[in-house]
């Protein structure tokens, strides 16, 4: 990801992220990653700063959002978006992994 902004301070050896005065530029998702000799895991937090120019984007996954399937079955999810900007992209990723499994297709 991107380096932490100057308005953020890392405390307690990186375990706590502190913003003394939030700015519009601080909006975003911050990822805390822990690595040891055997594995890596991460969690995230999001800052949404109000009071700036509104750029609302509405993203919806159509129902059913959760499907229990048998091995070998076919599954399909549809994601739609509404944005004030005519140029936007929709991309599927898998949480915790990022990329989709080789068997999954992202139709654009």
From TrEMBL:
<dbReference type="InterPro" id="IPR007110">
    <property type="entry name" value="Ig-like_dom"/>
</dbReference>
<feature type="domain" description="Ig-like">
    <location>
        <begin position="56"/>
        <end position="108"/>
    </location>
</feature>
<protein>
    <submittedName>
        <fullName>Heparan sulfate proteoglycan 2</fullName>
    </submittedName>
</protein>
<dbReference type="InterPro" id="IPR013783">
    <property type="entry name" value="Ig-like_fold"/>
</dbReference>
<dbReference type="InterPro" id="IPR036179">
    <property type="entry name" value="Ig-like_dom_sf"/>
</dbReference>
């Amino acid at each position: 990801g991107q380096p932490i902004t100057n308005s953020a301070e890392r405390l307690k050896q990186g375990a706590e992220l502190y913003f003394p005065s939030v700015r519009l530029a601080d909006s975003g998702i911050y990822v805390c990653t822990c690595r040891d000799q055997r594995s890596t895991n991460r969690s995230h937090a999001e800052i949404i700063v109000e009071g700036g120019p509104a750029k609302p984007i509405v993203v919806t996954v159509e129902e059913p959002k959760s499907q229990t399937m048998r091995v070998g079955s076919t599954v399909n999810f549809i994601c739609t978006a509404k944005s004030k900007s005519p140029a936007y992209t929709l991309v599927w990723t898998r949480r915790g992994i990022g990329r989709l499994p080789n068997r999954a297709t992202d139709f654009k």
